[in-house]
């Protein structure tokens, strides 16, 4: 097991290096530079000083080596757009917020989604199944940027139950977490339902039933475990995407998370910020992938990670 | 056994949302009770708290590094320069109590108030200004707005590394006297001193801790308010500065600045009373203006089209003019834009000083809007000069944005209907677009220009031969001469006339097509009094107050 994890860690580093290099090349090959704000072009001496400050006057390979050197010290560099905070600062400020919101959304999606999926599968074809399907269809087809203003309008403006936007207390968390969870919730419900149906028809479930095991015991001890495999697979990329912040929800609810920096760094051609957010996201993603693979062995003991020697 | 799913399509998610960055803008109003007192009540009984939205995190609150309107809005409230602009756009005494200007217009002597203090109690001195201005020009600072001080003697040379700091034309004669020497007479220099890039820096603080401006706890300011709280990406809280020299004129105790960057959310927060000032959402703008809930104030900017004069067809002035005349600006403004914009029949927007009155008013309209007959005639003449029978399809480029797209579609329609010309529309992401336009990879493009200072020159010197923002790559000797003449003159009548003549040449040749003059649309609760708005600066709430909220 340990050997397997070490090997995976090695591969993860290699993957990250490839991503860093590709991003670096792609980023510098798109036209435009960080210094043309409102379409006003600065006089040449100003541009020269700016390029020198951010080492953009050096040849690309030199910049690349310089960047990797700093990265080894975990220094993601200054933000060209912000004079106040470095890329490290921005991630340190924004990630905890996005993480908190994301975790709430994923938890909500998992609990409600799995519950709905299981119920729908057990009452296959009933009104409950149809209702769960309806929820799933709404969740998948109504985008969050439509759902969010609706929630704001009714819960915030009309009924005055919850704050319209901004961040700070538990109340501020409810609407954005709900809006954010709806899509994943629907996917999880569908995944659970179909794989549950699949599992419930298998021999060992019939055996369990024949042994006289109660229905809850059959479902939760035997069926659900196997039925959750596709959900776990889906969870890896979902966690990476949602925990690092989502642009739309954070923008609509004015949440000081990390989401907007993925978008704005590219719009601004804020090179260090593009690199920083991409590396951060990729790192989280590969870690999540590893956790998912480890989770498989917990859920299904038949899966042995280290079994395949090569 | 490893299951590997797709690596997330990061970019695609990001690009979808980039569309949403269309309607920024700030919040304006117009009513000022006069600079005097508000009629006896020294301390209003209502809580003097104002709730604003500044949209996003200010990138920098160091005057020499700030380059955007968000930072500018915060800075004009926490800091103060030598002057402060009034509602008419005229500079009024700020930290400088009075000033003398030499007859040749080259030497300015500012006399600073003796009672001006930083929020830490230290006096604001002429040395703080000298220090800040030299820092702005220092090549190592790499300040974007260093060129705002190229007017100083040796300013540009120092910024290029060709002169020493001591050679620069700014000197503190003593603690309260600042002497400024300019390269050329610059009649608008006084109003520039109200611009945030030229604000002072507390020398005694900056020398000890260069990071003082990054957090509220270490921020030292000399303006009407102090930076009490700064939660990055979330909010800023300003509190009244008791050390400000005119603290008795400041009635607001606190300004809360939210960072909400979604126009619908902003509107809903205005409706629930969480914000006292807001910009209306794009879709509701017309309705809210019509209902009198939103107000329109002029803004010192022009939206215009750029012709590539190096293009085979568009090198012909008659063709360019035909296209310019075949646009119905009134229709465009009233039915497409619907934000109270003004059709532009000249390049310099209203608000700049002329000989006696307003530059635009004196100059009048330089061509007729929607003059289809003349346009048709010019098109025929132009085609003959080019030796063509019919104009081949032309390409109209714009940066990806719903607003620009609507304008492009309307103009495409007008050109087709009025002149029978086929127009292909294409769009590119903003920075890619800028790059294309800069490199001349276009036929017709869109552009906007917001004045840097209140004078026609900020518009007129754009199109001198070889100018960095001369995207049409147009060149006219007479035009260059007139601009040069205006730049070296200290006589307002003489320089204005030179610029007005230059503007006529520009419109006669039409390397660019003025479309409309910008406006700012804002909503403000009726209990907010005394906000100062002029055509160029962010709204100044330093003398505002709350009355009648309860």
Automatic annotation (TrEMBL), chain A:
Domain of life: Bacteria
Signal sequence, start to end: none
A single GO cellular-component term on record: plasma membrane
Domain ABC transmembrane type-1: 95-296
InterPro entries: BPD_transp_1_N, MetI-like, MetI-like_sf
Record field: transmembrane: 9-30, 101-122, 134-152, 172-191, 231-253, 273-299
Coiled-coil segments: none
Bilayer topology annotation: Multi-pass membrane protein
Keyword Hydrolase applies: no
Pfam families named in the record: BPD_transp_1, BPD_transp_1_N
Protein family: Belongs to the binding-protein-dependent transport system permease family.
Protein name, as recorded: Dipeptide transport system permease protein DppB
UniProtKB/TrEMBL annotation, chain B:
Family: Belongs to the bacterial solute-binding protein 5 family.
Sequence ranges of Polar residues compositional bias: 26-39
Region feature Disordered, mapped onto this chain: 26-50
Cellular localisation: Cell membrane
GO cellular component terms listed in the entry, alphabetical order: ATP-binding cassette (ABC) transporter complex; outer membrane-bounded periplasmic space
Membrane topology: Lipid-anchor
Keywords: Coiled coil, Lipoprotein, Palmitate, Peptide transport, Protein transport, Signal, Transport
A Pfam family annotated for this UniProt entry: SBP_bac_5
GO term, biological process aspect, one: peptide transport
Designated gene of the protein: oppA
Protein name (database record): Oligopeptide-binding protein OppA
Residues of the signal peptide: 1-22
Keyword field contains Zinc: no
Classification via InterPro entries: Peptide/Ni-bd, SBP_5, SBP_5_CS, SBP_5_dom
GO molecular function: peptide transmembrane transporter activity
Native source organism of the sequence: Calditerricola satsumensis
